[in-house]
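Troubleshooting log. The previous run stalled partway through. Resubmitting the same two chains, unchanged.
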Amino acid sequence: MQITFDQVSHIYGRGTPFERTALRDVSLTIPAGSFVGIIGQTGSGKSTLIQHLNGLLQPTSGTITLGDVKVTPREKMPHARRRDIGLVFQYPEHQLFEETVAKDVAFGPLNFDMPPELVEVRVREALEIVGLDYEAVKDRSPFHLSGGQMRRVAIAGVLAMQPKVLILDEPTAGLDPAGRKAILEAIYRIHREQRLTTVLVTHSMEEAARYADRLIVMAQGRAVLEGSPDEVFAHADRLRELALDVPETVALVTQLNQRLPETERLPSSLYREEALIEHLLARLSVAKER
Amino acid sequence: MLQHIAIGQYVPGQSFLHQTDPRSKLLFVILFAALVFWANNAATYAVLVGFMLAGVLLSRLSLSYILKSLRPIWLLILFTVVLHLVITKGGEVYFRWGWLSVEEMGVRQAVFISLRLTLLVLISSLLTLTTSPIDLTEGLERLLGPTGRIGVPVHEIALMMSIALRFIPTLMEETDKIIKAQTARGANLTEGSLVRRARSLMPIVIPLFVGAFRRAEELALAMEARGYRGGVGRTRLRRLKWSWRDGCVAAAACALTFVIGWWRT
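Second attempt completed without errors. Output:
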């Protein structure tokens, strides 16, 4: 399902002393099946942007096209279509409310009138995708789990609806490195296995570089840079201006290239850690053979 | 969704009213509220409405924004108006249909009572719109200071108030976020039978309570960690001072009381 924004603006608290423009003329495309990273500082409009992606907010002006549905200042998103777009908020564990983990995960599917036999299957699948043992957690209270486990349950609650697009707002905020990695790897795995269109909001360049095949950089309510990671990272100066930085891998490649002769420079497509290590090792072994 | 409720929302500014000492504002509001009940004819109500409008001008806030604070109570006003129109009898009869009649006293009472409610809400919103919660509780604490000698826990009351005021916007934001999160999971709060709608509140109320308790615990811990032991021997960061503005407010209060007392019947 492709998502396009055409000249979308959003103003909060219109007509009050608290009026604030959160999005200014944002135009962008999220192609079907892609993994898009949205990066930006706090207050750059990231969270406002993604709330438009499933019709929770309506634009003040402009048009959003979600597959075959159009959302404009006048036209709302039909309730049933929300199921297609799974939105995981920041700190999603704060939305847990049921007595047991299984019931909480089943909340979304049941709201969209999925038959109960099917719901159980979906709940089991969703919990296993996020790396939890269904039999072990299904009857436990979600409030007695650890922080990382609660977050996984909350993400499973969205996955169980089987959305066509998955949007995550800083899913790793406040987690330890191991927890971060586990959650991101799980997200990346379902993205590849189900060709699920995924939007990851983050302020970590490392996370964006590692998983996204397309990046959108937000600043002051505008989409200032958009393109493949190597295209975006090529604007290192602009990123620094926006108080963002290129990932360490890109910084290393730039440093190495300054010392290497022009013919032997490293390609800018080496922004993923594994790819860079592999390339460097290959080069070293070639050098040794000589 | 919830961003339209204006009560208790401080709007930062530099106007006359913003810079007036919270104590004089508080005392004036209390006096004004008393005068609202003392006034009993068209002239005195006109004076009060005029004072109210002058206050709005002095706050440099737009009237339409302040009027929004009436939103939560307009149903109540409507209810009292209808009740008085129908029930209060006396004077000339304007309209009669079977047992139903609208009479002079009823119209009079309806207008006065709704004016009273409106004035009370507006003056208190004007206070909270121009006074930050910290100033407000500090003013209250100082005003109640003398009662501390007879065992009233003034500092604790003031602290409870400032914490409550401080968390109103936070909890509203959180409610908004939880409503959105559950809507994204297909919760439908606006459709279905009454029972169904009441049930659909559970996914919002429970996380909200859990969050409120979590915040309370964290706050208590943070306060203890910074050595908070109650009000005994605590010094103040900001001192409140009497200024020419407070003189103006006092003069206005005297003049208003005098005029109302003179003109009421």
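Takeaways: The mean pLDDT of chain A is 88. Chain A touches chain B through 29 residues (CB under 8 Å).
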